[in-house]
Amino acid sequence: MKKVLVLAVLLLVSACGVKPTSVVGAGPAPTLRNPEGSARGAEVILYFVLDGRLTPVTRPITSSVGVNTTLSLLLNGPSYAEAADGYTTMLPPAGGEIGLAPDPPPTITLPLPVGQLTPIAINQLVCTTFAALAAQNRYIIENTITIAGTDTKLPSQTCQAF
């Protein structure tokens, strides 16, 4: 009789009214680790596109680099190995000076028109900048970055890598 009573109590307690759902994929977890502290050597995190989603890629480099150099690497697109793995970019190739003004909110100045960039291309820039700043132990309190180009200045942006 005690076993039946215990079983009845367990059934009542476990029926909490929440219906089961299937697993909802949300993509890769955001990456904010300090590549400079890696035991394998210096690395940089670049955000490229894989299967239509923004994805962080860790690229080994020979020495630590600043935000401007990191953004230049991003604008140069995926390496041959990264492209072979399916990574692409939504950013146009661009050469020239890249600027970063630290005033809140920080502003990235690019040598290309930014008015027609897709949302995923904007996120490539913003998320890569956040990762590069984090690698230098510099964090943005407002969580926004402004992007300026040769044609316009976009409103402040946040990293939406999810």
What does this structure look like?
- This protein is α+β, with helices and mostly antiparallel strands.
- It contains 4 helices and 5 strands.
- Strands 3-4-5 form a 3-stranded mixed β-sheet, with helices on one face.
- Helix 2 packs antiparallel against helix 4 (119-135).
- The relative contact order is 0.17.
Mean pLDDT, to the nearest integer, reads 81
Major sheet summary line = 3 strands, mixed
* Helix-strand string: HEEHHEEHE
Beta-strand proportion: 15-25%
Amino- and carboxy-terminal Cα gap:
53 Å
- Tell me the number of strands: 5
Judged by helices, strands and strand pairing, the structural class is: alpha+beta
Shape: elongated
The amount of helix comes to 25-40%
Q: Which ranges are low-confidence, i.e. pLDDT below 50, for 5 or more consecutive residues? A: 31-40
SSE blueprint:
Blueprint: H1 2-14, E1 43-50, E2 53-60, H2 67-75, H3 80-84, E3 99-101, E4 107-109, H4 119-135, E5 146-148
Parallel strand pairs: 4-5
Antiparallel strand pairs: 1-2, 3-4
Helix pairs in contact: 2-4
Concise summary:
Strands 3-4-5 form a three-stranded mixed beta sheet, covered by helices on one side. Strands 1-2 form a two-stranded antiparallel ribbon. It has helices spanning 2-14, 67-75, 80-84, 119-135; strands spanning 43-50, 53-60, 99-101, 107-109, 146-148.
Properties at a glance:
single chain, alpha+beta, three-stranded mixed β-sheet, two-stranded antiparallel ribbon, 4 helices
